[in-house]
Design a protein that fits this description.
The chain has about 80 residues and is an alpha/beta fold. Helices cover about 25% and strands about 30% of the residues.
Length: about 80
């Protein structure tokens, strides 16, 4: 997992959880990945600071690869997850 170096990964599906708070972003991620295939990349946009902890744990627990995260913006957080 690398921090954003200026070029964001391409993605297959976007999930915008802006304005939602724990546990909603993770619940929506669970629902979204059910409709996706192995190897696809999910981009998650979030504003909840808890996602900085919850998204990596979600990936670790389910075996997905957190290929990129950008938590440096005051406007929100970006996560790119490759499905296992």
């Amino acid at each position: 997992m690398a921090d954003n170096t200026g070029t964001l990964p391409t993605y297959d599906v976007l999930l915008d959880t802006t304005g939602l708070y724990c546990p909603e972003p993770i619940m929506l991620m669970h629902n979204k990945v059910r409709d996706m295939s192995t190897g696809q990349v999910l981009k998650v946009v979030a504003t909840d600071p808890a996602t900085t902890r919850d998204v990596p744990k979600f990936c670790q627990f389910l075996g997905h690869e957190l290929i990129e995260q950008d938590t440096s913006s005051a406007d929100g957080y970006l996560y790119f997850i490759r499905l296992a």
